[in-house]
């Protein structure tokens, strides 16, 4: 399936890539790319049995800012300050440093590249920010020299995501170039999280033609990968009265499930654009998985006088399945969630004078409807740099209910008779 042209980040920065194979994890591919790129001793290469001679200069980093958490939606987030110090430790009496720079990179890797085994199709890098710490030769004495850095990371950046189709990671990549041409490198992964403040509850209405049944559902505006959440539902229009009798729907079965939909538009590198029909196009992949499901056995009340069924239950993602948070990038990577509620209702008939003497008519229906669930990290994991500003809510409570838009999501099927 071929996607529409999509805006792509220009590749501002290119690294030499290893010959990667599909069965390696994306994390290790990224690390290998870094190792290969680095001319100095690979920082994370612990397997090497050789003890290399001490370099004239080593680079280290102290991060001073709290873990990066963007509050609110990409449109409303004020971002997060990232700050720290790069430490250049000179082990010789004097060295001359020609250049010292650091890049903040966003790296997207896919498990489904347009051209198999092509590193440029597999991985894309985007420069988020660059610090020019030393731009002209400078002589440094023995000892530790510190270079503070800071940047307000823009709040629209998508959060670090490790999905089934693609991963998005952020890295700091510092390079010190000595006067003899030697390059000392330092790499560090930076995890970016997003937390959306819970606002007002979401109210949605679904109708189930041709029946008279209507479901009004109250859901939290956001949910979290860990922890349960309440769902309140009222099914109305369950009774139809005639002169001396009543037909009514009885709820027989209630199930819910949460589906996670991942999408990724795999871009083609300049050599393989022909495979996707031109520049700036890609191949859309999607992956849907179940991250929770349960049958609700109890907890609903039928009121045949009012014609309503009220029910309240709690749902949660299965933590063991490592649910992802909702996210979306400009280049076609996204994660979204849906809550699907399925009800089986059976029809029965009762004389009005003896409403408790009901007889099943044998008719039954399956009512199915779905709601978007926004999965986000819990807020309160860090301190927002602008915490003194009042929070801005992007999601205004849905009022009136949004059922017009999502009407087609409700469905009614004939069910096999339950009795
Ligand atoms: Zn390619």
UniProtKB/TrEMBL annotation:
Composition bias, Polar residues: 17-28
Chain positions covered by the region annotation Disordered: 1-28
UniProt domain LDB19 N-terminal: residue ranges: 102-276
Family matches, as InterPro entries: Arrestin-like_C, Arrestin_domain-protein, LDB19_N
GO terms under cellular component: cytosol; plasma membrane
Domain of life: Eukaryota
Biological processes, Gene Ontology terms: ubiquitin-dependent endocytosis
GO MF annotation, one: ubiquitin protein ligase binding
UniProt-recorded name of the protein: LDB19 N-terminal domain-containing protein
Record organism: Lentithecium fluviatile CBS 122367
């Amino acid at each position: 399936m071929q996607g529409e042209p999509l805006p792509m980040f220009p590749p501002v920065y290119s690294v030499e890539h290893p010959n990667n194979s599909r069965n390696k994890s994306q994390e290790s591919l990224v690390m290998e790319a870094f190792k290969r790129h680095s001319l100095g001793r690979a920082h994370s290469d612990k397997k090497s049995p050789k003890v290399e001679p001490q370099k004239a200069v080593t680079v280290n980093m102290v991060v001073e800012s709290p873990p990066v958490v963007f509050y609110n939606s990409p449109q409303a987030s004020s971002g997060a300050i990232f700050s720290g110090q790069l430490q250049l430790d000179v082990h010789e009496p004097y060295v001359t440093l020609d250049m010292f720079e650091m890049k903040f990179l966003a790296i997207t890797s896919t498990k489904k590249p347009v051209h198999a085994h092509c590193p440029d199709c597999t991985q894309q890098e985007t420069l988020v920010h660059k610090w020019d710490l030393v731009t002209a030769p400078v002589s440094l004495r023995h000892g530790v020299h510190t270079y503070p850095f800071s940047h307000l990371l823009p709040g629209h950046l998508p959060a670090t995501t490790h999905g089934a189709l693609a991963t998005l990671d952020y890295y700091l990549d510092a390079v010190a170039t000595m006067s003899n041409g030697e390059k000392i490198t330092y790499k560090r992964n930076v995890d970016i999280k997003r937390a959306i403040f819970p606002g007002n509850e979401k109210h949605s209405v679904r109708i189930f033609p041709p029946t008279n049944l209507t479901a009004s559902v109250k859901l939290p505006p956001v949910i979290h990968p860990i922890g349960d959440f309440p769902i309140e539902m009222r099914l109305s229009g369950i009774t139809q009265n005639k002169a001396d009798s009543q037909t009514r729907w009885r709820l027989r079965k209630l199930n819910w499930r949460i589906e996670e939909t991942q999408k990724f538009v795999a871009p083609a590198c300049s050599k393989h654009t022909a495979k996707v029909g031109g520049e700036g196009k890609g191949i859309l992949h999607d992956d849907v998985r179940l991250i929770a499901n349960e049958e609700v056995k109890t907890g609903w009340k039928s009121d045949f006088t009012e014609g309503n069924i009220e029910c309240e239950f709690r749902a949660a993602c299965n933590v063991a399945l490592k649910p992802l948070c909702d996210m979306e990038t400009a280049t076609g990577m996204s994660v979204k969630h849906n809550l699907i509620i399925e009800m089986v209702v059976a029809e029965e008939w009762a004389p009005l004078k003896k409403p408790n003497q009901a007889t099943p008519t044998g008719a039954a229906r399956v009512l199915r409807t779905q709601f978007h669930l926004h999965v986000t990290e819990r807020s309160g994991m860090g301190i927002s740099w602008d915490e003194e500003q009042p929070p801005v809510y992007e999601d205004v409570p849905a009022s009136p209910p949004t059922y017009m838009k999502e009407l087609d999501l409700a469905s009614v099927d004939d069910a096999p008779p339950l009795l």
